[in-house]
Task: inverse folding
């Protein structure tokens, strides 16, 4: 399937990112580094797009993405529409926990999982299929090129859909902060500053 061009960005570093806590749909504020990363996103957009003219604009309604969008606005005119489908994966019972704590409380959830597969299908949380359906619904509704600020795991799923990746390939993608992913015609390129 063909989609409009998407300019995708993950939120800046949060206090829980720094502490190694799984956030999911919970929230923690951006760190100073995270605010700088968000400002960098604004600079990258200004340098590469100039204006948002011709682009629809969307953001996850979670605090860390809204804070990223606000910091980004220092350099780029960005007035996004919140969309619940852009929320990060719901982590259920492991939300707010460190990997060590998850190993102690839910060791069975980690069995046989490689890399960040443990984010998906947590007890009481969303599966890959559920977040994939949410991402697919969002993408299917896009009418024009779009600028999107959202999250790491959701972003990997969106990037995977656009690039035709399977579940394992999508989950294995990196999730950098402070870079812009340009998704167009089944490919991904990155803009950095």
Result:
């Amino acid at each position: 399937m063909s989609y409009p061009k998407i300019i995708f960005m993950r939120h800046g570093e949060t206090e829980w990112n720094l502490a190694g806590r799984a956030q999911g749909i919970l929230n923690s504020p951006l760190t100073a580094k995270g605010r700088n990363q968000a400002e960098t996103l604004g600079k990258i957009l200004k340098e590469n797009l100039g204006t948002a003219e011709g682009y629809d604009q969307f953001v996850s309604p979670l605090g860390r993405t809204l804070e990223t969008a606000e910091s980004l606005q220092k350099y780029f005119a960005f007035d996004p529409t919140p969309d619940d489908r852009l929320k990060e994966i719901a982590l259920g019972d492991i939300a707010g926990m460190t990997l060590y704590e998850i190993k102690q409380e839910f060791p069975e959830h980690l069995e046989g999982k490689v890399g960040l597969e443990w984010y998906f299908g947590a007890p009481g949380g969303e599966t890959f299929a559920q977040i994939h359906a949410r991402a697919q619904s969002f993408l299917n509704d896009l009418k024009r090129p779009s600028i999107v600020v959202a999250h790491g795991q959701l972003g990997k799923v969106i990037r995977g859909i656009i690039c035709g990746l399977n579940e394992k390939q999508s989950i294995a993608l990196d999730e950098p902060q402070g870079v812009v992913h340009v998704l167009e015609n089944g490919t991904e390129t990155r803009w950095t500053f």
